[in-house]
Amino acid sequence: MRTVILTLLMLAAAATVLQAQDHHAPATAADTSRTTPKVIHRHSFFPHFRAAAFISHTFIPGVVEGSRVAIPSYGLDLEYWFNDKLGLGLHNDLELETFIVESVHEEFLEREYPIVSSLDLLYRPWRGLVIQIGPGIEFDRNQSFYLFRFGLEYEVELGHHWDLYPTFFYDAREDAYTTLSLGLGVGKRF
User: For 169, which of 85, 115, 151, 182 could close a Cys bridge (C-beta 3.0–4.6 Å)?
Assistant: First the structure.
């Protein structure tokens, strides 16, 4: 647990230190008195990388038919944005309990602190709304599953490239169970 917290703090500190800013000095009287006008180009900084951490609850199917159990989980997302609309993300979360689920083949499977990792295509159609879709794997000591993830999040800008975001995603595991997750996270662009 301490390792996770220290890693998140180090990522946030590194992102703050590495953040580039573009400053231009104002034009002086000597610059404006020349016969040919001088063009000053202003470049805006676009942060291509984003690191984010979140906490969530993952709702898994219970052993009793029709029931769901909420499992707490932590997550760490690393993203690269090609432009303002399109990006690629490595999304990871750790479910913090051991639990039993029933597979499609009516077998009972014990899951011990599974780690879910997915590589998602990110698309921002409107303001802070981000749609994520992609393949992934759930790693577990007993048995791992391939999965497909669909998710939604809404980034609320806090300033200085920080954001707060509620998130929802749905994971469908191959020949196994499906989960829904609801969470809240904080991200930093750099």
Answer: 151
